[in-house]
Amino acid sequence: MEELSVLGAGTMGHSIAISAALAGMTPVVYGINELDLQRAQQNVREKLNVLTAEGLIQSDETEAVRNRLRYTDSLQEAIENATFIIEAIPENLTLKQNLFHKLDEKCAEGVILASNTSGLSPTEIALRTTKAERTVVTHFWNPAHLIPLVEVIRGQRTSEQTVERTFQLLHFMKKKPIEVKKDILGSIVNRLQYALFREAQHILALGAASKEDIDAAVVYSIGRRLPVTGPFLTADMGGLDVFDTISEYLFTDLSKADHSYDEIRALVQEGKYGQKTGEGFYVWTESFTKEMNQKREQMLIHFLKEDDKLQ
Predict the structure, then answer these.
(1) DSSP label at 111?
(2) DSSP assignments along 284-297, one per residue
(3) Which residue from 131, 174, 175, 294 has the highest number of Cβ atoms inside 10 Å of its Cβ?
(4) Of the residues 118, 159, 255, 260, which is catalytic?
(5) What pLDDT sits at residue 311?
(6) 151 counts as catalytic
(7) 61-105 confidence digits (pLDDT tens)
(8) pTM score, two decimals?
(9) Active site residue: 115, 139, 145, 187, which one?
């Protein structure tokens, strides 16, 4: 079993650590100060309470899982026994390069250095290291303790051994890792997600439908199929002749925009960022925020329970 350290106690860091603790590991969580760690511990308690209430873990296991997590605001203490490090600090290339440079100097040669970046290049992150072959991206999806997928993204010099050990760790954590063989911008899921978001913005800009109906179109149609069939399975099941014919006439009419549309840019300029500021495309009242977060969490838990039935 790897000795795991998670550097970053925020939204992704503590959630990744929960996944490891649920699998029986004893991860170390590094935060920048005591307040940072206190917030992480409170978030861990809340998430474990939800998992217990939903029956994903037994009540007598909850404390044991929580006690497997160790916390420190000392970077040296966080990494001194680690064999595998997952970085989950803010999404800033310079910050990550500086941290990986420091880790490269301090960590033994066999320690894997992974980044949870959602879009930055593993090749660029490893630029200031001397052993780039041990650097890889492990892109968990938020909330990391509920979404199984992790994108394992190779940098230009990432070694086979690094990828193999990363997959072994993620399988042990009961995740569903996929390999991104080339260091492409956005990897796989963000490219797919933003292709859909671009077309959604285009349809809204055309005045063809409201944002509510565009959202409903996804939730109540392809959203119902996507948990079972991805795009290629869907095409096979629908008939490649049909998909080929539709592609021929529809592709030319799809959005080819190379920037955000006017409505989202106007909202951003007004400081309306969505849930975190109280308004975006939707108005996020306290009750609506609670309702939507609970709905999403309950649906993800439902899928986890279904996954368990199939294993």
Answers:
(1) -
(2) --HHHHHHHHHHHH
(3) 175
(4) 118
(5) 65
(6) yes
(7) 999 999 999 999 999 999 999 999 999 999 999 999 999 999 999
(8) 0.93
(9) 139
